[in-house]
Amino acid sequence: MAIISSSSALSEAVNLLRKADAVLFDFNGTLSLDEEILEGSYVAALTALGLPAMGPGEYAGLMGRSELDICQALLAAREGSAGTDELLDLLTASYLENCREHSPVPESHRRLVERLVDRGTVCAVVTGTIRPMVEPVLARTGLIPVLGCVVTIEDIEHGKPDPEGFLLARRLLDLSEEAACVVVEDSRSGIEAASRAGMSSIVVNPGLPGASVAVPSLSALSQAWIDQ
Fold first, then answer.
1. 148: Cβ–Cβ under 8 A, 6 or more apart, which residues?
2. Average pLDDT by consecutive 10-residue portion of the chain (228 residues)?
3. What are φ and ψ of residue 53, in 5° steps?
């Protein structure tokens, strides 16, 4: 990926969105700015089970994987009899409680999705998070009715970097293989999954290589879209 200025990158990303038949958004860290909330929720869940909290950099090393994979990895690194479902239940409860206090989906992100849909572009969410964590947050933003589908880890066998989630979304949206699908991501595994699905990608983390284009943030892309 060539290094280009922020303004040029945003223009390129806007052009990708203009040509898109569908835009597939990752959830955690992309549509929802909730990484700190998630990390804190994992700490709370582990503490409730009497297990050691995460060490420095442990969560960062797991980001981009599904919640199921993260829970399994955390439990495998700790001694105890807790099961994955128990950890997921505690994680979900803590996460939703924190999200009730402050929506992690910025208004600018919601506006971008709505404006894309208004112009006839189908939008969907494809995430490695479990449905009980995703849908309540999306419902509070009012986005559920405008999304073509929401694909979560329960719907597939293999999470990112496997392309299964993106390919399933394309089928659920009744799009042909020739349809122009653009993925919006924040992780290396998500970028790889998009590439393996044969889809263009916009990454909201300029430090990650491999995407079609990298932009400073989804809010910046939203403003560039509005200003077009």
1. 22, 122, 123, 124, 169, 172, 173
2. 70 97 97 95 96 91 90 91 94 96 94 97 97 97 97 96 98 97 96 97 92 96 92
3. -70, 170
Residue 111: both structure tokens together: 């506006």
In this structure, is the dihedral angle defined by the CA atoms of residues 191, 173, 30 and 157, taken in order, positive or negative?
A: negative
Please state, in angstroms and rounded to a whole number, the distance separating the CA atoms of residues 158 and 104.
26
* 226 within 8 A of 218, measured Cβ to Cβ: no
Give the residue among 155, 194, 161, 177 at the shortest CA–CA distance from 24. 194
**Amino acid letter at 6?**
S
Task: Name the DSSP class of 37.
Answer: H
Q: Which amino acid is at 31?
A: L
pTM above 0.70, yes or no: yes
